[in-house]
Write a structure and sequence with these properties.
alpha/beta; Rossmann fold
């Protein structure tokens, strides 16, 4: 087990989601800055956490949400992460930095979002990441080009899963975030959790090994 991983054990997914929300709100309350940035991942796992954050953050107007990764699909597509995030936070006072879909080029849209991040964020405070059964985080899937990108903060990545292209934060960006939270719940994550805790060859471990501290919240025995 890597000494840089701090583990919070919950009894179930709801408790894990609440634990994560409380940890992030504590980060916000300790911050002396006028704004606080939170990177949001897609998928169903963090939805409860997002709803809790929306309801429990005292001043959402100081929060800037940015999108960790997105399937390169139209915004009204059922697989769009941005659509899901907007459905939760759109009527809040938080600032949402949306990934835009041009339909022209995933690379173009990734570059445009990288510029949006650069123009709106001076410090990456917190990010919420899930972990796939293959150990991927964001859209940094095994054996894809973006895994080895060391130059850019946000890139396009060909993955051929649900949609052919994704746009995603890179390891270069994620390792700069002050607080990285991995939310990993469900019985289907038992094996990948074992691999992570044994410093396996996963995208999650690549990030963990490049950081001094990563926080893991899970409802599984490890």
């Amino acid at each position: 087990m890597s000494e840089s991983i701090i583990v919070y054990k919950a009894n179930d997914h709801l408790e894990a989601s609440s634990c994560l929300s409380n940890l992030i709100i504590n980060d916000i309350n300790k911050s002396k800055k006028n704004s606080f940035t939170i990177g949001l991942s897609g998928g169903s796992t963090p939805k409860i956490t997002y709803s809790l954050l929306k309801n429990d953050i005292q001043d959402l107007s100081k929060i800037i949400f940015w999108t960790v990764d997105e399937r390169w699909v139209p915004r009204d597509d059922e697989y769009s992460n941005q659509k899901m995030l907007n459905s939760i936070f759109a009527d809040s006072t938080a600032k949402i930095l949306e990934v835009e879909y041009s339909g022209l080029s995933a690379e173009r849209d990734a570059n445009k979002y990288a510029s949006k991040l650069e123009n709106n964020i001076t410090n990456f405070d917190t990010v919420i990441l899930g972990v796939g059964e293959d150990g991927h985080i964001a859209s940094l899937f095994p054996d894809t080009v973006a895994v080895n990108d060391t130059e850019n903060f946000y890139v396009s990545n060909e993955v051929n899963i649900l949609s052919k292209w994704r746009v995603t934060a890179t390891f270069k960006l994620l390792k700069e975030v002050d607080n990285v939270y991995l939310l990993v719940t469900g019985n289907n994550k038992k094996e990948i959790l074992k691999s992570i805790m044994n410093n396996g060859n996963t995208s999650a471990n690549k990030l963990i090994n490049e950081r001094k501290k990563t926080i893991l919240i899970t409802d599984q025995e490890i």
